Amino acid sequence: MPHDLPQKEAALEKLIDQGETDKAVALILELITACAGNNDFNKAEDLREKLYDVDAMALDAILQAGEIIEAAKSSGFDQDHRTIWAALYDRLAAEEANTLFYSLQDVAFNDNKVILHQSRPNTRLFFINEGSAKISHGSGSEEILLKKLETGDVFGQETFFSINVCTTTVTSLSRLKVSVLEQATYDKWGDRQFALQDKLKKFCLAGKSVEDLLNAKGLDRRRNRRIRLNTSIAVQIIKDDFKSLVGKAFRGEMADISSGGLSFLLRSKKVDTIRLLLGRNLIARFIIPVQQAEHKISLIGTVQGVHDLLFNEFSVHLKFIKPLDAKVMQAVEKFAQKQ
Predict the structure, then answer these.
(1) Given this model, what pLDDT does residue 325 score?
(2) Per-residue confidence (pLDDT) for residue 213, from 0 to 100
(3) What is the pLDDT of residues 163-179, one digit of tens each?
(4) Are 309 and 253 in contact (CB under 8 A)?
(5) Is the pTM for the entire model greater than 0.90?
(6) Within a 10 A sphere around the Cβ of 93, how many other Cβ atoms?
């Protein structure tokens, strides 16, 4: 950051107050050049936005500001990193490539470090620049190796691009150097970099999924037979003591159920709020008719995944703390058959 930036910003505000638009635009360009030259791209972008506020019709200056920033970003691009990830960067426009590169954080892990934990949430996407790691799945007391990861591999994508807990564990096998993208940063790209979001998602999900790896080892997570069941359901967060309820109950529509869990549909415009359900314990209540009476069923489980179905609708997947009682399951199945 230029050492005299505060003084020049004060001078800029004075020019704006005095209506000296042309001089203000020139000074903003000068500050953008200085900030970009010092790799302070966030400040440079803020100043570029200020150009719109000062004179939205100064199109030449606005374009010039963008060119200054992109040129500075390109000159500082790590060519070794670009070589490793050529398959990704080759499909990106220059501005998209710069946005991605400068959004990444370089992190190193020592040998035998657990980076992603099975059954825990994850909000980071990892690009391996050097070293190796393994993807494994815990089944009882057994750890099953699913895949070895090397330089040029990505991991974390299944939980990064959807709202799920990790179904596997990732552990470093050597000194591991990675570039990390935070989900909050990805989300901030928003409408301005929608195409970049789409390209990155397609690149990262192109290979075999974790689901494919699990199925190849005979570890299908959905071992229990699922029954389609369309009925209203009331759901509420419950604390880990399984006694104290949190907040208000919310209503959804049951989709299916098995002895091990259920899924239901939920409508909401608040994606961040829905994301907070991941890993939470919920108590789910619904009613089924049994002979001439109504049978009220209450089940407690942990949210394992939330899938965006578009148009503000989400599919929430709950894993029961205890398997569903066989008699209750029979009653549910009879009700489902009558629908």
Answers:
(1) 87
(2) 81
(3) 888 989 999 999 999 99
(4) no
(5) no
(6) 11
